[in-house]
């Protein structure tokens, strides 16, 4: 399989894995789904490709299940059973669970309490019996964060209702994610330099295409979500100048990213981001300085 074939396969297999998870009450009780896959479900006419699944832990997960070892064991058991039961229930069985691992991120206790987990799912595909080493599906499960009344809305996956981020929460978090990838914040939280988050620049512009800034009520919600998510992860924002720290690198990475649909060019996406930040300033929410925790 070449890179494009792998991406196409992962996207298709991920939809089946998400459906399996949605059928497992013990998982849907403790996880709120988010990220590009949820964005794709919220905006089904978009061309956005998602190659992994993101979720956030509810606070009750650790309270009910216990320490890191118990959590890892719980997640491995529940995800494994979700895959096996769902795939076995299909009239024509295509996928089979080959292996599943759970890794804590970071390995040791996070100094700020932001303990996350990565679930890797390996499947066999009856339609690709001659292909060895199919790519793993990844579910990233972030540490809990405060949620507003506007943050979560039901989402139907294969006939099952799950809790997932609203569009306003997705937009607010994606704006924060851009800042988290930039040099100032990575230095603040003692993280090594990394790649800038160009997919999030695209996603914010995509959401804007469906909710223009004259939808003031929507963008006021986004501003509040941005504010609460930044405070949860100690992310500062002085204004557009904070976003501009790695502008040239961002423009280059955006143009080279093969997973982006190509229907929104960088300059247009960036112009949208500038207008959004100006709107936040008008709402009195910037500058924003969040103490480290």
What's the structural blueprint in terms of helices and strands?
Blueprint: H1 3-22, H2 25-28, E1 31-34, H3 35-42, E2 53-57, H4 59-65, H5 68-88, E3 95-105, E4 116-125, E5 137-142, E6 152-157, E7 160-165, H6 167-180, H7 183-188, H8 198-210, H9 216-232, H10 240-243, H11 247-256, H12 266-282
Parallel strand pairs: 2-5
Antiparallel strand pairs: 1-2, 3-4, 4-5, 6-7
Helix pairs in contact: 1-5, 6-8, 6-9, 8-12
Q: Over the alpha carbons, how many angstroms does the gyration radius reach?
A: 19 Å
Number of domains: 2
Helix-and-strand structural type: alpha+beta
The CATH superfamily of the largest domain is: JHP933, nucleotidyltransferase-like core domain
State the end-to-end CA separation. Answer: 45 Å
Spans of at least 5 consecutive residues with low confidence: none
Oligomer: single chain
Please describe what this structure looks like.
This protein has 293 residues and is α+β, with helices and mostly antiparallel strands. The protein folds into two domains: 163 residues, Nuclear Transport Factor 2, Chain: A (Roll); 116 residues, no CATH class. Helices cover 48% and strands 16% of the residues. It has twelve helices and seven strands. Strands 1-2-5-4-3 form a five-stranded mixed β-sheet. A two-stranded antiparallel ribbon has the order 6-7. Strand 6 and strand 7 form a beta hairpin. Helix 1 crosses helix 5, helix 6 packs antiparallel against helix 8 and helix 6 crosses helix 9. The longest helix has 21 residues. The radius of gyration is 19 Å and the shape is globular. The mean pLDDT is 95.
């Amino acid at each position: 399989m070449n890179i494009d074939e792998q991406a196409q396969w992962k996207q298709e297999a991920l939809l089946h894995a998400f459906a399996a998870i949605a059928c497992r009450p013990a998982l849907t009780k403790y996880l709120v789904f988010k990220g590009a896959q949820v964005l794709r479900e919220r905006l089904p006419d978009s061309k956005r490709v998602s190659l992994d699944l993101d979720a956030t832990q509810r606070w009750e997960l650790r309270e009910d299940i216990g320490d890191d070892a118990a959590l890892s064991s719980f997640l491995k058991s529940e995800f494994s059973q979700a895959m096996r039961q769902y795939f076995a229930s299909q009239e024509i069985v295509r996928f089979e669970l080959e292996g599943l691992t759970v890794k804590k991120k970071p390995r040791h206790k996070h100094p700020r309490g932001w303990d996350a987990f990565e679930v890797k799912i390996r499947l066999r595909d009856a339609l690709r019996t001659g292909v060895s080493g199919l790519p793993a599906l990844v579910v990233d499960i972030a540490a809990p964060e405060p949620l507003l009344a506007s943050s979560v809305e039901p989402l139907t996956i294969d006939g099952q209702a799950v809790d997932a981020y609203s569009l306003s929460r997705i937009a607010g978090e994606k704006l924060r994610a851009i800042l988290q990838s930039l040099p100032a914040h990575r230095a603040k939280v003692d993280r090594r330099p990394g790649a800038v988050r160009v997919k999030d620049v695209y996603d914010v512009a995509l959401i804007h295409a469906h909710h223009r800034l004259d939808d003031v009520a929507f963008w006021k919600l986004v501003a509040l979500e941005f504010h609460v998510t930044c405070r949860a992860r100690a992310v500062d924002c002085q204004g557009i100048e904070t976003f501009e720290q790695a502008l040239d690198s961002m423009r280059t990475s955006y143009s080279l990213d093969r997973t982006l649909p190509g229907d929104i060019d960088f300059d247009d996406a960036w112009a949208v981001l500038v207008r959004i930040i100006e709107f936040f300033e008008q709402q009195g929410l910037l500058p924003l300085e969040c103490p480290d925790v």
